[in-house]
Amino acid sequence: MEPTRTAPYLLLWSAPDENRESRRRYAMRRYLTLDDAPGRLPRAVRLVADRRGTGAVRGAAVAGTVDEAVGALSGGHPPRPPRHRPVVLLFPGQGTQHLGMATGLYGYEPLFTRALDQVFAALGPEGHRLRDEWLSGHPDVPLDDATRAQPLLFGIGYALGRMVLGWGVTPAALLGHSVGELVAATVAGVFTLPDAVRVLRDRVDAAVATGPGGMLAVAASVDELAGYLPTGGQVAVAAVNAPRQTLLAGPDPQLREVEEKLRADGLTCRRAAARQAFHSPVMNRAAERGRDLVAAVRPGAPAWPLYSGYTGGPLDAARAVRPEFWARQLADPVLFWPALDALLATGDHLLLEAGPGQGLTAIARQHRAVRSGASTAVPLLPARPGPPEHDRRTLLTAAGQLWTEGHALEPPAPDPLCP
């Protein structure tokens, strides 16, 4: 389908110094208020895009109406030198999915739409059905099931990642959570898109075959939970998301027993949106089954630095090409917080979450490097379901943040950002 630009719009501008930036905004407001013909806001966006320059003082505003644009341009906008912090792409995994996620970008954001269509095409006939269910908001199978959540999270994350690259942004690193690590690896070139989709489909089939299971988020550290997880049991730590945010996983009956004990002892628990026990011993056989397929597609070295939730740090080229590493991801725990901590220890960054829910953004904002303002976490999608405009505003706000940080947003950026 051919993407179509509609409101809201993103205005980007710059000037060599504070005085000229102020005059620039005044001229933009005057243009908007004097021209009362229909379509003046889209024309203003095109005009600003043509003359935005690359000055040291930068501004950005998202507006859906002329009045909103004038109000944004009338604000203080205290000038700040661009910080030029390197960009890191974060890709979320199972549990962040929700009905309508990112549908507001499909048919609106050209780069996103084209990349997601490539994923649906790689999935074959089931990809077309998946797209129709996703757009309708009425999946034939519950969205939390691996057959729906996994391919949609992969496709949306991949499309967002390719879109940011298409804006001219070169990532300093990529970090994914669970299926998000497969997305990161594909964006970084470890897998081709067709091969990644083959691996994904095999993982989904293997996970579904393990039977009903679930995942449980607990507000406690790994050490605090040790006594609740008997040695050799099927319930295990599935993810370390933050120092006191741990995810457990296992078969339904056993996980329910653990949950009851935790609640009885006053620990806060919440079921994650999953119908399979990812990253638990339940998946051991499924992981063994997937090794041959990964070996057949021959993963390569990443084009950009990858941080892994399975190593808790950087992923070197030697490990990135090993089939065992990728096959074990179904069963091994996700060490997201250690990986994030290792990444942020290398310097200040602008973290872009490329997926629904803002879960990784919320986790990153707990880190001392983000709390201090040295690094910043910015989502590309809203935290919860809403109308299509919410998807678009969140995306454009993130693009504006990239611009004011000092990133060039070189062509083909005018295509996704301007009508």
Give an overview in words.
It holds the Pfam family Acyl_transf_1. There is one protein chain. The chain is of the alpha/beta class. The protein has two domains: 1-81 and 386-419, Alpha-Beta Plaits (2-Layer Sandwich); 85-385, Malonyl-Coenzyme A Acyl Carrier Protein, domain 2. It is built from 18 helices and twelve strands. It has helices at 18-34, 40-51, 66-73, 110-122, 125-136, 146-166, 179-187, 193-208, 222-225, 252-264, 284-297, 317-320, 323-327, 336-344, 359-364, 368-371, 388-405, 414-417, and strands spanning 9-15, 57-63, 87-91, 173-176, 213-218, 236-242, 245-251, 269-271, 306-308, 313-315, 350-353, 376-379. The strands form three sheets. Strands 10-9-4-3-11-12 form a six-stranded mixed beta sheet. Strands 6-7-5-8 form a four-stranded antiparallel beta sheet. A two-stranded antiparallel ribbon has the order 1-2. A hairpin with a 4-residue loop joins β9 and β10 (313-315). α4 (110-122) crosses α6. It is globular and about 70 Å long. The relative contact order is 0.16. Mean pLDDT is 91; it is low at 411-419.
